[in-house]
Amino acid sequence: MPYAVRVFCTDATIPTLRQVLNWCATDGGVLMAIDTEYAASDYIDADAHTWRDAGILYREDLAPFVARVARSDDDAIAFAALLAPFRAALTTASPTAETERVRTHLDDIQFIVTCTIGDDDENDTLEAIAWFTQYFVQHLGGLLHADGEGFYADATLIVPAP
Length: 162
Hints:
Layout: E1 3-9, H1 17-28, E2 33-34, E3 53-57, E4 65-71, H2 76-92, H3 97-107, E5 111-117, H4 123-139, E6 142-146, E7 150-153, E8 156-160
Antiparallel strand pairs: 1-5, 1-6, 2-3, 3-4, 4-5, 6-7, 7-8
Helix pairs in contact: 1-4
């Protein structure tokens, strides 16, 4: 079953893939590259802020993980539909300061970065995704959500998945 990690970002500036991958290499020591054979796109400009969908290589012997960006200003209805399950989950969560923090954060997001992997749960895969998503958390007002786990702040689970 595919596994996804999402970062809900409040900053309106979407970084280039080169910025993210350079930061991962410099700060995390994790070398990654854009998969030029990824089927979703013919060409990805590593220096463009307009990327939407990219395969990210992190180890030669494993499949890339997929990173996608959904922007609030693209299709408001589709973006609201994307947020709906997360908002609904918060209505069943215990009312705490952390739940309110997540709810308020979701009201202010500008874009969502989703990283998905298939059934591969290699530690290297999860580490690469952790570094990739950490860029958005540290630089773009991101709040992390992991499927089946919940919302995280500073690597601490603050609102568990129902």
